Amino acid sequence: MTDRACVLVVAKAPVSGLAKTRLTPAATPEQAAEVAAASLLDTLDAVLSVPRVRRVVAMTGDLEKAARSAELRRMLRWFDVIPQRGNDFAERLANAHHDVADLPVVQIGMDTPQVTPWLLGSAVVSTLAGDAALGLAEDGGWWALGLKDPLHAMALRRVPMSQPDTGSRTLDALHDLDLQVSPLPVLSDVDTIEDARRVAALLPRSRFAAAVSVVRQPVS
């Protein structure tokens, strides 16, 4: 059966001291890496359940040094894994879309382990129905970007990333290309320990919730 789109996960190897550093000092660097690994694994699980899509991970970092390295390598056998390339995050995002440009693309990260196959499937449908789809994040960024023509990701090169207005500026950049942009549900990115605990409460039987539960609670 022919793939209708590509679901692209842009990911960073969850290496202790490099992954989810904003979870410290509540979490140790090792615990933060475990949370990041669990988030990525739960995200990949959701992608695996989306039908009729090509599954791609654009990866950066040393997977051999990552938390849950063996489990991640087993999971990634079901994905096409490509390297990220570029001098900054915006460039790496644009290049990742370009590298899978044979199909419409729905791109997500690894900071929304609450994503479901239904949400991803809906993002694919919205992308195919118009020109683009954008899922904003509660912190002002975005968690998902769908592009019927992946080469339109060049617009991201002009958008400052990891800023409070990244989401709105991404939407403006897409509108500047005269694209019809369908809105996706707003989700919470996991950046802080408060984010992590709030999202984990929604996913009681997940890898993510188990990893977050190990992080000590603040002393009252």
Automatic annotation (TrEMBL):
It comes from the Bacteria. Pfam families: DUF2064. InterPro entries: Nucleotide-diphossugar_trans, Trfase_1_rSAM/seldom-assoc. Coiled coil: none annotated. This is Glycosyltransferase involved in cell wall biogenesis.
